[in-house]
Design a protein that fits this description.
Layout: H1 2-45, E1 49-55, E2 57-80, E3 85-90, E4 97-98, E5 103-107, H2 110-130, H3 147-171, H4 177-223, E6 226-228, E7 249-254, E8 261-262, E9 269-286, E10 298-303, E11 311-318, E12 328-335, E13 347-364, E14 369-371, E15 374-381, E16 384-389, E17 391-400, E18 403-411, E19 419-423, E20 432-436
Parallel strand pairs: 1-20
Antiparallel strand pairs: 1-19, 2-9, 2-13, 3-5, 3-8, 4-7, 5-6, 7-9, 9-12, 10-11, 10-13, 11-12, 13-18, 14-15, 15-16, 16-20, 17-18
Helix pairs in contact: 2-4, 3-4
Length: about 450
């Protein structure tokens, strides 16, 4: 038996190998048929995704920069007193509209009126010593006409004449040397007296001018007892006013009361006045927008106090320097406020319109798909969806019925006249079959 097995075992191995090969061929045959059936059935197995679409629509679009800031008065001024004293009367309070030159506060002025009277009497005394009633307005005074100077000059002239006679008589030996020397001494004394009179006259004149200046100062302090609304300089005039008298301030704060004692140093703020028409909005803009900002550009503002209402302003000033700390610059926007709706200190959102595009591609907001930092839309081509990467721009409010619908400006490789998918994007990928839903489905 063992010999018989040794003779036949190669036949057994060959038979087993043939059986294994047949089994492997049959399995590959069955697997190939299954794969062919699966491949032929895949296209018909993907159902069409129902979607809604909208056409890419060219629209005029405004290029703008959105910023925020706080509204401020066109000009604000803190009014302080130049003198010290007790508040006698207050003419205006918070919210009042005032004009340049109108009174705000009166101080008790008894002490200041007495100071004026004292200065007047001192000036009169000096003028009396000069023989005058008042100082000439042109400040040109002939001191040779001052009585003391006239008297000294006359005495000097008389002494000189006596000296001349003494000299002539001494030549004829009518008088002695002693009398001649006496005449010479009297002449020198007379000259010294005349010079002294000139000096005293100049000193009296200087004293009179000092008294006049003190009188002016006392009268100014008396006038300062009434605090009035200031006149703005031409540089700070609002654009709507041609004359300082046309400027209107509003009282923003009153910080004193009648009967209160106010010191001059340190200066105490009595009132805070604000020019509230127009207002100004100062905003900070990143450096990258420097080339886009120009003087005169339109600025659209909104505030929380008036939701849905827009106010317009214009770019009035552009700071010529860039802040090194944050790489930004500031601009000043002038905002007309004829209606007085806007208030200084209000928070405002602003949109600076830099330029306008006559025709830009826009799609409904719901057509935009954002995922993992990628922005795209799906366009429908030959019954299939195709993803197109885009960049978004400005938002356009389009009226549809009684509502405003948001359309977004997009740029990218969009086919001309294409339609974009507005619903059903979560089920879409490239080449996914789609079916446009009809109205009412």
């Amino acid at each position: 038996m063992r010999g018989l097995f040794k003779r036949r075992w190669p036949l057994v191995v060959v038979a087993l190998a043939l059986a294994g090969a047949a089994w492997f061929w049959w399995g590959m045959h069955l697997r190939g048929e299954g794969s062919q059936k699966e491949a032929t059935s895949t296209p018909s197995a993907i159902p069409e995704v129902p979607v809604t679409v909208a056409a890419i629509t060219p629209r005029p679009v405004e290029r703008s920069i959105e910023v925020v800031g706080t509204l401020e008065g066109h000009d604000e001024v803190n009014i302080g007193g130049k003198v010290e004293g007790r508040i006698a009367r207050i003419y205006h309070d918070v919210g009042d509209e005032v004009r340049p030159g109108e009174p705000l506060v009166d101080y008790e002025d008894v002490d200041y009126r007495l100071a004026v009277l004292e200065a007047k009497r001192g000036l009169e005394l000096e003028l009396a010593r000069l023989g005058m009633l008042e100082l000439p307005k042109d400040d040109k005074i002939d001191l040779s006409r001052v009585p003391t100077v006239v008297r000294a000059r006359n005495l000097e002239e008389n002494a000189r004449q006596i000296l001349d006679r003494a000299r002539r008589l001494s030549m004829t030996r009518v008088i002695g040397v002693e009398e001649l020397e006496k005449a010479q001494t009297e002449a020198r004394v007379a000259t010294s007296n005349r010079e002294m009179a000139d000096l005293e006259a100049r000193a009296i004149l200087a004293s009179a001018r000092l008294r006049a200046a003190q009188l002016d100062s006392a009268e100014q302090r008396l006038r300062d007892c009434r605090v009035v609304v200031p006149r703005p300089s031409p540089l700070r005039m609002p654009p709507c006013c041609k004359d300082p008298s046309e400027v209107r301030y509003v009282v923003a704060a009153r910080k004193v009361a009648e009967g209160e004692m106010v010191r001059a140093m340190p200066v105490v703020t009595l009132f805070r006045l604000v020019i509230d028409n127009p207002l100004k909005l100062i905003v900070v803009i990143p450096e990258r927008h420097l080339a886009e900002i120009k003087l005169g550009q339109t600025v659209v503002l909104t505030t929380e106090a008036y939701p849905g209402e827009q106010f317009q302003g214009t770019v009035a000033r552009i700071n010529p320097t860039i802040e090194r700390e944050n790489r930004s610059f500031t601009i000043e926007v002038t905002v007309p406020n004829d209606s007085r709706k806007l208030r200084p200190g209000s928070f405002a959102k602003a949109r600076i319109i830099t330029r306008q595009a006559d025709s830009a591609n826009t799609v409904p907001e719901e057509a935009i798909v954002r995922f993992a930092g990628v922005v795209k839309v799906f366009v429908v081509e030959n019954g299939q969806a195709r993803a197109v990467p885009v960049r978004t721009g400005e938002v356009v409010q389009v009226p549809e019925g009684n509502k405003l619908h948001r359309w977004i400006e997009v740029t990218g490789p969009l086919p001309k006249g294409a339609v974009v998918v507005t619903s059903g994007q979560t089920q879409l990928a490239d080449k996914t079959p789609v079916r446009v839903r009809q109205p009412g489905e």
